[in-house]
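The material for today's practical consists of a large collection of protein records. There is nothing in a record beyond a sequence line and a structure line. As an example, a complete record with its sequence and its structure tokens follows:
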Amino acid sequence: MTSTLDQPTRADATGRVHHAGGAAKVAAKHLAVLTRADKDAALHALADALLAATDRIVAANEADILRGRENGMPEGLQDRLRLTPERVGAIAEALRQLAGLPDPIGDVVRGSTLANGLQLRQVRVPMGVVGMVYEARPNVTVDAAGLGLKSGNAMILRGGSAAADTNRVIVDVLRKALQEQGIPADAVQLLDGGHEDVDALITARGLVDLVIPRGSDRLIQAVVQGATVPVIETGIGNCHVYVDAAADLDQAIAIAINSKTHRPSVCNAAESLLVHRDVADTLLPRLYDALRDAGVGLHTDQRASAIAERGGTPYTPATEVDFATEYLDLQLSVAVVDDLDAAIAHIDRYGSGHTEVIVTGDRAAARAFVAQVDAAVVTVNASSRFTDGGEFGFGAEIGISTQKLHARGPMGLQELTSTKWVVEGDGQTR
């Protein structure tokens, strides 16, 4: 039963979102006709504005961090939330990299001339108005704004409450910089209401063309299940590193350590290690020492536990939940598997379709792994941490799609476009 006290709140949220959507549609019309030079100049202006406001942004972020710490926010999530001057510089640099990338709008995907003389072209066009629902990652605010601008899309952003102060300051800085460039400020808008704003955004069909959720599995599923607007589903990263029998063990140790410890709080960090039984006794003692030195807690299956016991390595017996968990922390599940097929079966059971890694010198094994593992990114002999729009040369990313329609993997400029057919004739009739 709906409380009458809820109705004004929901009505207010619908009104706010519909007003934002209408303003965004107007802004999107303006963005659609900007030249690449216009957009690139604006991106550099946004980067300059962020750098000039670094002290203000960091101060707001420190307030968010303090509030999160007082509310018991885990350190891993605090790391996702934290913006230092160096990180502000990095997100500003990502905008400059976007400015250096080709403009996808107007690209001809394919074309032909028919026998009757009609000329057909399928060209890239903006989506229009894109809604983003995300959690404690204020860098996403900047990435979304920059990618939206370059791809000609107006962005309606709804960040998590944990980054509320930071996002307000960032969006204020971005909107003022856009205005100074002669671009409607409503090309970037921030919703900072509660869950009712999310509900209104994901059901604003006709005003919002696409919604992209980014964050926890709970957030993503809530958006996917509740939306009437089309959704591109990003997913959690329960990523695996599989060390094959033919692996270079020094290389395997380096890849596993980097995949787990480089930045454990992000979705492309490894959460599970699978080791072929033929190399387990040789590899795992060395790797356990390295992981222990890095402060990683181990959740091990029976065979991996036996090797840990022999070396005096602390461990926790792994459960089904452990193998299914995206830790986002210095924790790692470990299993010894009989062969490549067993590794793939384990990944099929517990993986999230994000990034899966094989370390092997056997090209046949690598080919089989690539062909059979169902994930957005499959990596051979390299760290899982390379699954990133910036690392892929996209300048930034709007998220990492783990679904299979339209976009999959790191989503950059092209993934924020649709296409339209342009037909040019000279009086032809049918």
Q: What stands out?
A: The chain has 15 helices and 16 strands. The longest helix spans residues 6-32. Confidence is low (pLDDT under 50) at residues 1-6. Residues 157 and 190 are 5 Å apart (CA to CA).
